[in-house]
Amino acid sequence: MNNLFYISNRMHRVMICFILCMILLVLSCDEDNQENNEPVQDPRILWTYPIEDSHSCSPAIDNDNTIYISSGTGLLAIHPDGSLKWECILGTNVDTPVIGEDGTIYAQDYMCNLFAIGADGVKKWEFIIEIPFHIGFKTPAIGPDGTIYVVGDSLYAINPDGSKQWAYINNNGNYKPGIVATYSTPTVASDSTIFIALPGEWGFELVALHPDGTVKWISFVQECSFVCGSITIDSEGTLYFPGETGGGEENYFYAYHPDGSLKWIHTITGSRPIRASASIGEDGTIYIGTKASDAKEAEFMALDPADGSVNWTFTAVCTHGVPDDIYISAAVGADGIIYFGAENSFFYALDSEGTVVWTVDFEPVNGGQPGSSSPAIGQDGTIYVTVFGEGALLFALQSTSMGLANSPWPKYRQNNKNTGRGIF
What we know:
By secondary structure, the chain is mostly beta strands. It has one domain: YVTN repeat-like/Quinoprotein amine dehydrogenase (Methylamine Dehydrogenase, Chain H, 7 Propeller), CATH 2.130.10.10. The chain contains two helices and 32 strands. The strands form eight sheets. A four-stranded antiparallel beta sheet has the order 1-32-31-30, with no helix packed on it. It has a four-stranded antiparallel beta sheet with strand order 2-3-4-5, with no helix packed on it. Strands 6-7-8-9 form a four-stranded antiparallel beta sheet, with no helix packed on it. Strand 8 (114-117) and strand 9 (123-127) form a beta hairpin. The longest helix is centred in the N-terminal third of the chain and has 34 residues, at 2-35. It is globular and about 55 Å long.
């Protein structure tokens, strides 16, 4: 009995010593990391995958959970565990991919040329537009019948086989072959109406087209000289989009009725234009972020859809000594959490009242910032977003949101396939 008691005490002392040693080892490793300036990875980061170039590409997620993202020379397909599925070399840098009903992936390069890639990673065809200079990246939209709508020197409707269906040219005398029609991207309603903001004779025009390319209506956009973000559609068919005044103190966010009449205008002061596109919560709240200026920091806003009044604002604090913008369109999760990033290197999760739930700082990982990449949310709660810094990375982040919110427009381009098509 005494022997058993002695052995037990000895084992107990050995275990205590072992635990103390392990604690000292962990503390020692932590001190070594701090001394060597090695970053401690945020536990929300599940994995990262290196991508070659740093631009505004946002990920797309297919039905089988494959993630598609641009590389510096083409398109990457990534498994949900972060391993490479395939790479399609296109010889050019493409923007946000869009997934068709048959699994074909569509993407435009910086000269507006459209590429179609099969789900097996093999290029199907290429539609040449060839704008002769870099005018910013574009994202196609896909209609209910599979027609692909793209912007170049006009608005094109492309058949799924790569042949041209029609091209719309604004009849204001401003059209010049080879010159970009707009910096915005097309949006398609559930009834197949195509919406696009185009430069008119006296400013920008909101244009609605029938599926055959004929004009449904055209409305003049008040006090607007530039439109960058794409159009968002709510459950009543209201159209939301930002407009800029070309460096003025005031910039605007617009709401138009489905017939093209103005519903309201929200004014943003402090020389802070909006370059992102709006997202919509389940209760209809409009979420949008602004750029920053020397006078005022960037803000993320929740607007009332009835009149454009502000429900709340969240300030993205500047961390780099220069204005840190919010270029990202937010994604709203199934549990109502709102996700977006800013140039201050932080990725934010806010609740519906504008309170911070959590943040991830990308600065320690690769010195990066989310830039203009909008997040996608998988059904398992994984958030995918690209971050650019000392080497661009695709990040997979853990969240409590099991997919997107059941709202008319919960993220950039409406859904995880980025089709830019409304559901109402």
